[in-house]
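Input.
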Amino acid sequence: MQRPAGAPHGAVLLVGTLAAIYLVSQFLRNSVGVIAPDLAREIGLNAAEIGLLSSAFFFAFAAAQIPLGIALDRYGPKRCMLLCAAIAFLGTLAFAVATTPAGLVTARILMGLGSSCYLMAPLALYARRFPPERFTLLAGIQIGIGTVGTLFVTAPLAWASAAIGWRATFLVVAGFVVVGAILVAIVVREDATDRTGTGKQETLRESLRGVVEVARMPSFLPVFLMNFMSYSSYVLIVGLWGGPFLSDVYGYGLTARGDLLMLPAISHIIGVVAWGHAERYFGAYKPLVLAGALATAAALGLLAALGKPEPRTLAIWLTVFGFLPAFLPVLIAHGRSFLPPHLVGRGMTLFNIGTMGGTFVVQLASGALIDLFPAQAGVYPLDAYRLVFAVQAVAIMVASAAYLTVRR
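Output.
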């Protein structure tokens, strides 16, 4: 049962705070793509190691989801967010001072653990404090504002790295993590209903039984598979291989890569809001999710076929592509619609294992695929990237076929 969120200004302050710290976590999540060529030169990373470096975040993030879901329902979102902030702070500092591949990967694992709750914890609060018909809108606002963090890992990260270096930039970001934690400590207030949704404390056995209960729901697996492929498609370009692709195929430098990758980041922010409003207008989840997924697959297939479009066409493609996979709020709301209040935390984190676990697998596998092609002076051939884009397009279509079986 939902309870009032308080005065309107209180709700705005709550949503603003939760979205702000999610913004910082989004920056950490996608911060490898633009600076990947520079990391490769400075520390000596090949494509498989770059894939591992980026995917380590998503592996840790996904691995944290089941215990996080239990913790959200047992201890409440606020405690989870404060603990995660401390871990994210340590990971960001470790990344800034790392000098070896192992050090960078360890830092990314800490970042992933520390960022693991900043979408699910806010969504659990929204699910329990606001009416169901407002959930998609709030999820869209949360993701939309948070996605500004992805915008900052494009041109702004490139500019900052060129001006003060990527290490100093991450030290500054560590300071923003601290500011976000302070805001959460001050603004977010809880009571017992922010845990199980009923005020009753579950035993650990009951908590684990709830995880199994969610996984056995008839529509769980198809929605999980769509989560597995949807977000990973966007991050494949903006968060990882977009930068190396622009460097290896077009010869663009740091700031040019950042400027171009800012295009899909901006359109993704617009898309998150647009897809969320479309769900309220059409009143259905499934057709919108399928439209977004199939359009994303078509766009990746087009880029694989074109290979090296002329620069203006590439800029248009990047802009359109950022919009297409931004249907995640609709997909999240669809998964949420299956969950009773006492399983909200565990259910949404299970779906989020698909989102982050899929990104981990896609990034790791794509790095291995690219490494099948010999690099010349550190530059990978166009065909390596075309293969990765084509494989991702096919995988999205497979997930869409499974999602078709979901019943209303």
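Residues 8-403 form a domain with the Growth Hormone; Chain: A; fold (CATH 1.20.1250.20).
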